[in-house]
Amino acid sequence: MLICYWSLVTAPPAVVPTRPSTLTTSGSLPASHQRHATAYAALTVALAYAIADRTRPPAHKALLVFSIATGYGAVMEFGQVFQPDRVASLVDMVANTIGSAVALSWYHLEQRAQFIPVGREKRA
């Protein structure tokens, strides 16, 4: 819901960079693309958590979650075409996809990891 609100309802910042798809002088992505990636990473983790107890193979769940998150991102960008204060951007869709892919890869790594509490020793 928040992604939809921020994508379609709120007005963008008044200052628009002249070349938003370029790297900043520090070599990192612009803050707007970082926010896109972070928001879609959070969406992907929430979706992955929502279907974690399904009996489908992990690859099917991964494809489903990735498809929903990236599809939602594409729909939100398309919806911005009809908003006078918004600009649809292919670069934003790529940032959404990257955030989703990174989060999804962590979700599957977490399923294979064994977590051991720090600072607790087993006593015989």
UniProtKB/TrEMBL annotation:
Q: What is this protein called?
A: VanZ-like domain-containing protein
